[in-house]
Amino acid sequence: DDDDDDDDEDEEEEEEDEHNVLKRSMKPDDLYSNTPIDVLSSTNNNPDDPNESSSSLVKPKNNTNDVIWLAFCFFGIMCSFVLYGLLLEYATSGGKHLHELSFLFVTSALYTVTAAAGRHVRDERPSSIPPAQFAVLAAMGMGSTFCSVRSLRYVIYPIQVLAKSCKPVPVMIMGAFMGKKYPLRKYFNVALIVGGVGLFMGGGGSNKKHADSDDSNDVSSPSQMIGIMLLFISLSFDGGIGAYEDKLMSVHHVGPFDLMYNIQLGKTILAGVALIVLNQVHIFFRMCQDMGFILVALGLSGAIGQVFIFVTIAKFGALTCSIIGLARKVTTLVASIYFYGHPLNGVQFTGLVISVGSMIMNFWGKGGKKGGGHGDKPEGNGNGEEERQKML
Length: 392
What we know:
Elements: H1 2-25, H2 35-41, H3 63-91, H4 100-122, H5 131-150, H6 157-164, H7 168-177, H8 184-202, H9 222-249, H10 256-277, H11 281-316, H12 318-339, H13 346-367, H14 383-388
Helix pairs in contact: 1-2, 3-11, 3-12, 4-10, 4-11, 5-9, 5-10, 6-12, 7-9, 8-13, 11-12, 12-13
């Protein structure tokens, strides 16, 4: 009888282990990783069958397919978001002003359609997050996007790209108020990034071609200070989104495309209501007439890039996606400087090198840690989280 009880306990423990593996595979940060399910499905469930190998618990990887998928994801992310950056700068340069609410309505609607298709293909079950909490995320995401796009009326696009790299600043400030501790290396790394961005913004002359005044690229000019403040508000919204999203995901199940769908649907509704309430529908139609193709291209390139991000994290982990994201930032900066003729002096070039070098140092620190594989969760609200938050 004792032997039977032991056997029953062993069977219960095995079932509990399998249940825990399946439960872990459904975490949002794993983005529906198939690894735990593959491990279970490859286990020899019939030991009497000589055709099944009990030692092969994990399916062998096909390195060729992995290389092909990695190249596919790399070029997908690079092409989508570099194109997005170039189009966004085109729509906000040369004296053109992009109407932010029209931009939000069109792009969010396209993001919603893409997410709905992805949710259907992935057969994701509906989230248990209440609609009111999705509305909070949508409102913060709308505020972040509005301020970020609005800032391009006052600063050049490369400044926006670099300033977005200072995202850990509001995140760490809020974390410190909540009692969270950070290693000294992280403070040093963030300080280098902020210093590099400061040199880039403050070291230039009159090289902002789409502003009204010649001294608009001088950090002391009122116009650029407005742009910097808008970027800081956008980063603060991003920090709030990350903290609130983590809180919701700790108690609710949500799939990646389901999250993207609900947030973007909320942003679309809020932008539409704002257009009506503020009596700006006529501006929306005028924008569609003047820049309809650009708006659609921005929405499609951003939405497709988000799909590539999901695939990359699911197949190769958040660290790989973050490294590709860093390459995308550098490529976008180089493309913007080359195509739109932003001349850099020695101080600005030094600031650019310091900022990019600090980002690379950040990845070296993460690379030394265990993980970075399939389904790994990025540290804190780091770059992996930043890539995933493009859905917002």
